[in-house]
Amino acid sequence: MKTIGYACTSADAPLESYSFERRAPLANDVVMEITYAGICHSDIHMAHNDWGFTLYPLVPGHEIVGRVIAIGSDVTKFKVGDHGAVGCMVDSCQHCDQCRRGEEQFCREGNTGTYSVPDRIDGSITKGGYSKHIVVREEFVCTVPEGMDLSRTAPILCAGITTYSPLRTWNVGPHSRVGVIGMGGLGHMAVKLAAAMGARVTMISRSPDKEKVAREIGADDFLISTNAGAMQAAANVFDLIIDTVPVKHDLDAYMPLLDVDGTLVIVGQVGPWGEVNGLPFLMGRRRVAGSPIGGMRETQEVIDFCARKGILPECRIIRPEQVNEAFATLQRADIPFRFVIDMASLSVPEAA
Ligand code: NAP
Ligand code: ZN
């Protein structure tokens, strides 16, 4: 089927209007008309080829919600008119041990990312949610609980699951002391989710102007990472730190904040770390770990958790033609919320 979206053709090119084909739905496919797509910082990294594996033309977007407009003959979970949600993966082998555990992000054959990787079925390059339509096998489409505000649901599909998964892996609950580094799309969701799990939550930020919002969305404390005295006074106070910083940065500043046996989980930076001092690791049996997105079972779980707890991401809705402006703003790293593109306002291509 013909559709339309926004794509960039090189690391320096802006996103521009782009027409392309989606595959005709297979028996287990769901066809969605996309209503909203969140802008993740990963979309910017990929558009600029920061990680070196971008395939152009690139249609970004892996925080997607929409309305089902057609289904294949074997689809059982959806009917036309339902709402559905797609995150960072659209396929996996479905038979390895990790897929069977519902941890398709660790598929032994490699999961199929929502954009910029070869599709397992036809080898075409996958294209993401900055588009009018998407065709995805039903196992990779989540259901959206009745009554959930669709305009604020999309960021749960990446910012939500990427922070929920480590909070669950490290058993965060009312006993936990959680620090979150970086108050952006991921960081603000980490605060909301950890607070909803009953943890004591501290936002660790370079931006003093974000304190008010941080406290409004559930942070108990606000630690300014550039204040050496405040950082020293906060030694040994966290069981878990979720680090969402998007660039290479100094871990030495944060490790002493962990209590004995505490863990700092990197979910932000992809790529080589800066030089790390082993002393705080040894002296407090502290650990550093990483965590990527989450499996489909857990992605559905975080959507349902948010619906049950009344949690929604903080969003600024923009029109598709404002996407380059939003990228530029996000790169300045000064926004404690998610931009979400109103994809429904994109005009439908002829003969779609
Ligand atoms: P974002 O909205 O831009 O937020 C990042 C925040 O980090 C900023 O708001 C800022 O918060 C802080 N920050 C930025 N530059 C910094 C620096 N040089 N030093 C210290 N802090 C800095 O980005 P996002 O969408 O949350 O994404 C964050 C990162 O997670 C990106 O690298 C993205 O690619 C990655 N990601 C990973 C996964 C995964 O599977 N693990 C999934 C999604 C995204 P303050 O102003 O509060 O300091
Ligand atoms: Zn993302």
Could you provide a short overview of the structure?
The chain is an alpha/beta fold and 352 residues long. It is 21% helix and 25% strand. It starts with a strand and ends in a 10-residue tail after the last strand.
Average pLDDT confidence is 96
Low-confidence stretches: none
Secondary-structure class: alpha/beta
Tell me the radius of gyration. Answer: 20 Å
Helix count, DSSP H or I runs of 4 or more residues: 9
User: How do the helices and strands follow one another from N- to C-terminus?
Assistant: EEEHEEEHEEEHEHEHEHEEHEHEHE
Which ions, cofactors or small ligands are bound in this entry? NADP nicotinamide-adenine-dinucleotide phosphate, zinc ion
Helix content: 10-25%
Q: What is the fold named in CATH at topology level of the largest domain? A: Quinone Oxidoreductase, Chain A, domain 1
- Tell me the domain tally: 2
DSSP, total strands:
17
Distance between the termini: 6 Å
CATH superfamily of the largest domain: Medium-chain alcohol dehydrogenases, catalytic domain
What about the largest sheet?
7 strands, mixed
Approximate strand percentage: 25-35%
CATH architecture assignment of the largest domain: Alpha-Beta Complex
CATH first level of the largest domain: Alpha Beta
The global form is globular
Family: Belongs to the zinc-containing alcohol dehydrogenase family.
Pfam families: ADH_N, ADH_zinc_N
Domain Enoyl reductase (ER): 13-341
GO molecular function, one term: alcohol dehydrogenase (NADP+) activity
